[in-house]
Design the sequence.
């Protein structure tokens, strides 16, 4: 087996094979120079042809041009590097956005607590209900932001699953969409939903998207009715 140097010409390889009768094996990492002076990655072999007496009378050249494959590998390498950079930028942006958006949410919850402690006695039942809903929505939003941050982390540890009561998950979403339901005149009918082992944040996002889209893409001047049920 002859060693093949990068940039070697095909003519020289054939001469070597004819001279010593050896087979030259080429890997896809071998680069040969063609007649036009271009380096071409090739593979396979150059083998001598012998007559009945063992004399070398020619050579068989078997080549496979790996140019397209090498170009594809290079493109994949560049794409992977670009994807890595994009993921790093996304992670930085998400961390920044989550931090900046969490601060006003914390203030909403903090002032809500102060309002409840200081003025809770003078609020009627409806006022207390409004305050509770406001704080609950802010708390869920903070959880959503944390989930987005986790999903943006490349190679992050898989989110652990929890027991999720879908009736409660849908009820929380309906509470968040209360203003949109009031504006559209819509209603949400919730059937008997199961409890699943899932990611509670993602399940909430799922129902929020489904119900939100149903309210958004409704017939004009028709009050939408969203029905949610489950079956095995």
Sequence:
């Amino acid at each position: 087996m002859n060693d093949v140097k990068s940039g070697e010409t095909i003519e020289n390889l054939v001469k070597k094979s004819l001279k010593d009768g050896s087979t030259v094996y080429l890997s896809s990492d071998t680069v040969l120079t063609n007649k036009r002076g271009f380096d071409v990655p090739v593979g396979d072999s150059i083998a001598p042809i012998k007559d009945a007496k063992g004399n070398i009378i020619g050579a068989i050249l078997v080549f496979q041009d790996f140019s397209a494959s090498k170009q594809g590998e290079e493109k994949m390498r560049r794409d992977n590097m670009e994807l890595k950079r994009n993921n790093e930028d996304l992670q930085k942006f998400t961390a920044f956005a989550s931090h900046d958006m969490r601060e006003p949410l914390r203030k909403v919850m903090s002032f809500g607590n102060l309002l409840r402690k200081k003025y809770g006695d003078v609020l009627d039942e409806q006022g207390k209900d409004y305050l509770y809903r406001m704080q609950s929505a802010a708390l869920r939003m903070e959880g959503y932001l944390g989930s987005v941050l986790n999903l943006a982390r490349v190679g992050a540890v898989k989110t652990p699953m929890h027991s999720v009561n879908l009736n409660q998950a849908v009820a929380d979403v309906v509470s968040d969409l209360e203003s949109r339901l009031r504006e559209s005149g819509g209603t949400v009918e919730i059937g008997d939903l199961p409890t699943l082992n899932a990611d509670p944040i993602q399940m909430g996002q799922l129902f929020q998207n489904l119900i939100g889209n149903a309210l958004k893409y409704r017939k004009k001047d028709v009050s939408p009715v969203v029905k949610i049920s489950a079956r095995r």
Observations:
- The chain has a mean pLDDT of 77.
- DSSP finds six helices and eight strands in the chain.
- The first helix runs from residue 10 to 20.
- The first strand starts at residue 8 and ends at 9.
